[in-house]
Amino acid sequence: MTDSTPTPRERVLKLFAGEAIDRPPCFSGMGNVTIEGLKKFGYKFASLHSNARMLSDAAASTYRLFGFECGVVPFDLCVEAEALGCEINVYAHLDDILYPTIRKKLINNEEEMDIVVPSELPALGRIPLIKEAIGLLKAEIGKEVAVGSYVLGPFTLAGQIMELNDLLKLSFKKPDKVGKLLETLAGVIIVVAKEYESAGADYITVREMGATSDVLSPRVFKNLILPYLKKIFAELKTHSVLHICGKTNDISVPMLESGAKAISVDQKNDAAETRKKIGRDALLFGNYDPYNVLVSGTPGKVREAIRKCLDDGVSAVWPGCDIWPTVPPENLHAMMDEVRKYRR
Amino acid sequence: MSDEKSKEILDALKNAVIQYDEDAAKDSAQKALDIGMDVNDAIFNGLVSGMEEVGRLFEAQEYFVPELLMCADALYAGLDILKPHAKKMDLGVKGSVVIGTVEGDVHDIGKNIVKMMFDVAGFTVYDLGRDVPLDRFVEEQLKTDSDLVCLSAMMTTTMVGMKKVIEDLKAKNPNVKIMIGGAPVSKDIADKWGADGYAKDANNALKDAINMISSLKKLKEDAEAKKI
Predict the structure, then answer these.
(1) Tell me: the pLDDT tens digits for B54-71?
(2) Is the CB of residue A75 less than 8 Å away from at least one CB of chain B?
């Protein structure tokens, strides 16, 4: 039997290809750097984002230290917005872990919503750097585990480059105007995702957190946002995942209709119900709580949460969001062990 | 002034908020002033009543955040006209609050909804905005001697910073009340870190807001009942 045990990479690729595998993989399409990993290299979190070598080292460390079955860069949500001209803040003055945010928006009022995308987009901001990090990560651990990257969804990206308050209200008052912006941004996302593909990413996650049913009605999701997600997934050649956090039970079927190979949901989704809705063969990734379980829980609580995900019928054990870096090593070990020994 | 006319205006104010109609809110607020209605009555039984219904619609998932934001705009459109004429209510507290979203977090929708509640209730609000360095909360509280400090964080990644602010605030001024809010916040966390109250999301913030305003309303009514 040992001979036929697939590598984590083979397992993930087979899963995406719809082939039978020995067990669900335990991986993520979002950030999963840990303090333990940073300690090993003496890296400061705020310094990672603009250094390809550091990004790659940190991303590979979660696999090396804990056997987590992937390598993912980047670690922040500002890459596309920055390339479009937003100014970001990495909080370099702080030792605490804070994720970069947008300091200066690109669109400051409704009149500025007609943006022009620079033709040299692939060369702008940190896009070349993320590509380099993907390449390094491939060289480092790419034979053993699948290497992933992520982009934002068009609505979430719109919320980065303009005031979220304005975007939400306009999506109601002037859906045509918002639709036009989303169309432009879908184009941006396709360009960026293709760059990551060409750099060797095995799978790409589109993070469309802004479209959660905690914020927007399923109707607005379907009418205003879904058409542009479809556009994006139609263009992606590599394996793809659509991630939306918060309430998603009412949009799980449209999420699949986007054309993504897999959908990713967080702990607020009733995964058993979703499994019933989307059928046996659709790929559902999720949905443990990466903070209240993985960071503040005990190993026992972690095992229980992982078993619940698997009992509910997830295709891969996968966190509801980025893994928060202060995760205790014993909890990560407990999670990996539970996935390996679980039998349905 | 006829009771019927007052009721008509209260209904108009309420509906303007529910139907997020800023112009109607302004019109009705002006009418309320024109006929010499009790301004606090117009605010609480008109605008705030409307917001209570909005909260119900939000809970029932008929309304979502965009609607909530538009309703809040309508409420403010009315409030801006009425507020200069409102009598200060005696609530037994000084009524000032420091509010902001903690450093690392640029989401301020929940914070703004809570802020609306304090504006409605006639508090003096020191809004520090978003992405606020933690020390600023302590400085501002000391400077303004506010009764209450509200900290908001939408993301787990920024919530952890609240713990330190709570410790610093309580060390410098044990009497200050602290409310924390945001998606990752739980009762557990609020208890563990020594916060006096918490609101988990925009919906809960709104519910909390409404609860607080309803209790203020009750206080006001009780006070009036005693007068009679």
Answers:
(1) 989 998 999 999 999 999
(2) no
Q: A25 is written with which tokens? A: 């993989």
- Give the list of residues 6+ apart from residue B102 with CB closer than 8 angstroms, or none: B131, B132, B134, B137, B151, B152, B153, B158, B159, B161, B162, B165
Residues 112-151 of B with CB under 8 A from A: 112, 131
The pLDDT of residue B228: 56
pLDDT value at residue B157:
72
Does B64 contact chain A (CB < 8 Å)? yes
**Degrees, nearest 5: CA angle A280-A282-A287:** 95
- pLDDT at position B77 is 97
**Global pTM?**
0.92
CA distance B50 to B213: 13
- List phi, psi (to 5°) of B152: -125, 145
* Residue A226 to chain B, least CA–CA distance (Å): 18
Q: Of A168, A184, A161, nearest to A79 (Cα)? A: A161
Find the farthest-apart pair of alpha carbons in chain B and give their distance in angstroms, rounded.
Answer: 55
Residues 6+ apart with CB under 8 A from B192: none
pLDDT single digits (tens) A242-301: 999 999 999 999 999 999 999 999 999 999 999 999 999 999 999 999 988 999 899 999
Do A250 and A218 meet the contact criterion of CB atoms below 8 Å apart?
yes
Min Cα distance A89 → chain B (Å) is 9
Across the interface, whether the CB atoms of B70 and A169 are under 8 A apart is answered yes
Total residue length of chain A: 344
Both tokens of residue A21?
């595998």
User: pLDDT category, B196, cuts 50, 70, 90?
Assistant: confident
Rounded to a whole number, what is the distance in Å from the CA of A75 to chain B's nearest CA?
12
Give residue A212's pLDDT band: very low, low, confident or very high (50, 70, 90): very high
